[in-house]
């Protein structure tokens, strides 16, 4: 019989993430089905899966960085990567709280992974998670986390790592079974808390990673618990705010304290997790714009996701729409533009392309039997293909159009007609994308050789169809040269997408340049918001 490890190391952390992701993948739909609090939107299992997927990917990146060496990463590096990955990938109320739980554990386990530190880590995790929630409610994942920490703390001083984890797991299971008697909406539905169920699954994966044995499964319903009535009953979730708003935020601690107060006044289900300048903000509100504006005042919000609960509730009782479009966009300005056109958008932050799980999540949010996926980036080809395969396995018909730039996606979306047959629509959208040449401007970071010659740091590069074609000294001159190169082969429409720091005067000057030199060519201008390239250009 194998001996129990004395401490949690980086390999065990990696195994934990892998097993947790596998377990949540198996149980995702079941957890979704019991999601009735705080909003019965049926996505808790999915949100937890996506959160852990991001955590696991971050840990894998740490191991990949050590592939050329003979040693494995330090435990501290692995647990910190896990916590950071969960933070930036957290989804929904449950995922955000799980991210804070992992962050609380990582702060202690980075020092050591022995039994004593594990007890402290579980306690710190439960405390941090409760502190992150504006108005903690019993009978939720917070209660389950507290119970796990208390059970671990009650173990004998001589208990080894596996014994402490086993106690924590059993304590969490017991607390989970009691949640229907603590929260009215759970009692009425006859189910346990979905977020708590997810935490038990994650703790079970940790126990399996350390102890080597699959833990006992926990039932997801509690039929023996009588429904709560009278003064204990609460209003159902359908009476709550209309929108869920989530974003990552770069801000200082004191600004986040003010943000908490402002968001608390705007809505409910407020959870703010993170630290060291990076935060994940989750809130349910009626005024989504005000929630985002509050983030802008506090710092720099990005990866903004807004979900309309009312629409989701209606869709939950209707057949899925016949067709949807999922578009990856490089800036929040284009996100709004595509959303107005009826598309479901995924925002790609510069340097952080979306994972396949994010694309699958967007396909699910489209609530359609047929979905057209526009990745708008050549580097996302394999990621988008993996997402399409997973969605197909779930019964969704997905067509992946290999758009390589946002302007190609805009062209494809412009000819989208959901009333025609799926195949005809895909052909038309593919043809529109293929007929659109694309370019972008970038700033050279260092001296290097390009297809257009040697560039110096600070030069403005004009990339046409992915290759450097022009090296210039300023944005305006380089943009004019790029336009002339592209229009020399003909064209009917120029699309300009401006970054947030590009003045309107430049767009007007480029529009005038096209008007004077190419009489039959029209120009459309969009604001892309925060995007990596100062200017995107499309020519159809």
Describe this structure in words.
Residues 219-238 and 311-319 have low confidence and may be disordered. The protein is of the alpha/beta class. The strands form 4 sheets. Strands 13-12-9-16-14-15 form a 6-stranded mixed beta sheet, sandwiched between helices. The chain is 49% helix and 19% strand. Helix 10 packs antiparallel against helix 11. It is built from 19 helices and 16 strands. It has helices at 10-33, 44-65, 75-89, 92-109, 115-132, 141-153, 161-178, 184-189, 194-211, 253-266, 288-298, 309-316, 332-340, 356-365, 381-393, 406-414, 422-434, 475-487, 504-517, and strands spanning 243-250, 267-275, 278-285, 300-308, 321-329, 344-347, 368-374, 397-400, 437-443, 448-450, 453-455, 460-464, 467-472, 493-499, 522-529, 535-539. The relative contact order is 0.08.
Overview in brief:
The protein has about 550 residues and is α/β, with parallel strands linked by helices. About 50% of the residues lie in helices and about 20% in strands. The chain contains 19 helices and 16 strands.
List keywords for this structure.
single chain, 4-stranded antiparallel beta sheet, alpha/beta, 6-stranded mixed beta sheet, 19 helices
State the low-pLDDT regions, or none: 219-238, 311-319
Strand content: 15-25%
* Gross morphology: elongated
* Assembly status: single chain
Distance between the termini: 68 Å
Quickly count the helices: 19
Radius of gyration: 25 Å
Report the sheet with the most strands, covering strand number, pairing sense and barrel closure.
6 strands, mixed
State mean pLDDT (0 to 100 scale). 86
Number of strands: 16
Helix content: 40-55%
Structural class: alpha/beta
Strand order of the largest sheet: 13-12-9-16-14-15
């Amino acid at each position: 019989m194998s001996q129990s490890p004395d401490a949690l190391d980086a390999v065990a952390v990696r195994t934990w993430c892998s097993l947790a992701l596998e377990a949540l993948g198996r149980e995702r739909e079941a957890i979704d089905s019991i999601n009735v609090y705080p909003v019965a939107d049926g996505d808790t299992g999915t949100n937890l899966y996506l959160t852990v997927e991001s955590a696991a990917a971050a840990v894998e990146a740490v191991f990949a960085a050590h592939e050329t060496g003979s040693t494995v990463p330090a435990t501290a590096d692995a647990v910190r990567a896990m916590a950071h990955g969960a933070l930036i990938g957290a989804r929904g109320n449950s995922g955000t709280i799980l991210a804070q739980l992992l962050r609380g554990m990582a702060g202690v386990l980075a020092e050591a992974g022995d039994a004593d530190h594990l007890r402290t880590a579980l306690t710190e995790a439960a405390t941090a998670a409760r502190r992150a929630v504006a108005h903690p409610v019993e009978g939720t994942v917070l209660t389950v986390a507290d119970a796990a920490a208390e059970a671990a703390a009650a173990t004998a001083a001589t208990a080894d790592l596996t014994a402490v984890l086993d106690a924590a797991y059993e304590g969490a299971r017991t607390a989970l079974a009691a949640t229907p008697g603590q929260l009215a909406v759970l009692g009425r539905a006859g189910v346990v808390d979905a977020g708590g169920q997810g935490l038990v699954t994650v703790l079970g994966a940790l126990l399996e990673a350390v102890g080597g044995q699959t833990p006992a499964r926990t039932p997801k319903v509690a039929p023996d618990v009588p429904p709560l009535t009278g003064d204990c009953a609460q209003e159902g979730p359908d009476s709550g705010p209309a929108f869920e708003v989530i974003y990552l935020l770069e801000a200082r601690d004191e600004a986040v304290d003010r943000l908490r107060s402002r968001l608390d006044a705007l809505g409910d289900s407020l959870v703010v997790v993170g630290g060291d300048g990076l935060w994940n903000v989750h809130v349910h509100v009626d005024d989504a714009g005000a929630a985002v504006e509050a983030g802008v005042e506090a710092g720099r919000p990005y990866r903004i996701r807004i979900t309309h609960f009312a629409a989701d509730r209606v869709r939950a009782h209707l057949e899925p729409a016949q067709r949807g479009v999922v578009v990856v966009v490089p800036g929040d300005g284009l996100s709004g533009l595509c959303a107005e056109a009826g598309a479901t958008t995924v925002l790609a932050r510069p340097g952080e392309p979306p994972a396949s799980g994010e694309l699958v999540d967007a396909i699910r949010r489209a609530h359609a039997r047929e979905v057209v996926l526009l990745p708008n980036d050549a580097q996302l080809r394999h990621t988008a293909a993996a997402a399409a395969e997973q969605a197909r396995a779930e019964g969704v018909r997905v067509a992946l159009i290999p758009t390589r730039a946002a302007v190609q996606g805009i062209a494809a979306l412009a000819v989208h007609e959901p009333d025609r047959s799926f195949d005809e629509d895909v052909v038309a959208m593919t043809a529109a994308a293929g007929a659109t040449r694309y370019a972008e401007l970038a700033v050279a970071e260092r001296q290097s050789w390009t297809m257009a010659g040697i560039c110096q740091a600070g030069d403005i590069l004009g990339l046409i169809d992915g290759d450097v074609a022009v090296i210039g000294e300023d944005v305006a001159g380089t943009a004019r040269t790029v336009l002339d190169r592209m229009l020399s082969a003909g064209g009917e429409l120029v699309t300009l997408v401006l970054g947030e720091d590009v003045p309107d005067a430049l767009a007007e000057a480029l529009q005038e340049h096209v008007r004077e030199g190419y009489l039959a060519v029209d120009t459309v201008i969009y604001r892309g918001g925060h995007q990596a390239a100062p200017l995107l250009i499309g020519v159809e």
